[in-house]
Amino acid sequence: MKKFLSMAVVAMMTTMSVYAQDETVQVYFELNQLPKLIDIMPEPPAFDSPEFANDVVRYGWGKQQRQDPDRVALAIADAEWDDHAKLFLQWKDAFGLEINETNTPEIWKLLETSLATTDPMRKETKAYYHRQRPFERFDDSMPSHEEDDLRGEGSYPSGHSLRGWGISLLLAQIAPQRAEAIFSRGWDYCNSRVIVGAHWQSDVDASRTAASIGFCALQGSEAFIAQMKKAQAEYAEKTQQPVGVKASVIEHPATRAHRLDGISAEETSHGIVIEGDQKVVRK
To answer: Catalytic one among 160, 163, 178, 208?
Structure first.
């Protein structure tokens, strides 16, 4: 009966355009062309499960982080949803470039269109499970003051985290040489949702996976690939940095010898060494 009611709610919300994508943007794929998260992701942890016990521990961790003024200020800034200029600004230092509609139009278009495509992927799963949020369960206040906007809305998976990890994946594809800094910023962005009490840790963890599923789907769009190339070219032009990672290649003469443990062998070394592709016994 409970499952039937949940499905009825999903059907009703579908009729109310819960799946609607941003009609002002020409998305890369319609929602029905993307993988269905509800058919992929597991159920959120039950409230009497060991996994939920970890969620509670992480909720306590999040509240401890609020004692750090800088960290809680970052978490509040990370709560931005509507203003994409402010949202993308959170990756400025990690990406090495400020993203805005005027100065980086190709990167902006890539992010805007990608988010418009993948953001709605979460909605069916959210509506189906309708998971209670941490601040509701513990009757707590939120430093980001999102209570009125979020109360009564399901928490699994996290929309902010799906979006934040998705942005990180996209920016790392544009500038893979800055991937470590980009993903570090994305990781903290997702954890900000735990810190403000908007989401359980398992919501956030599931969203990183969901974002990766959406990101992989985008790679199948010719329009996405074309826009990605434009974004990469724009990044290279604006930063004067080549796109991608240049591997440094060290060429070894064929006659150079190494011991079996890989350490370079001197000419006076004795025993078995590797010269070129051959084992050689030196006496």
So the answer is: 160
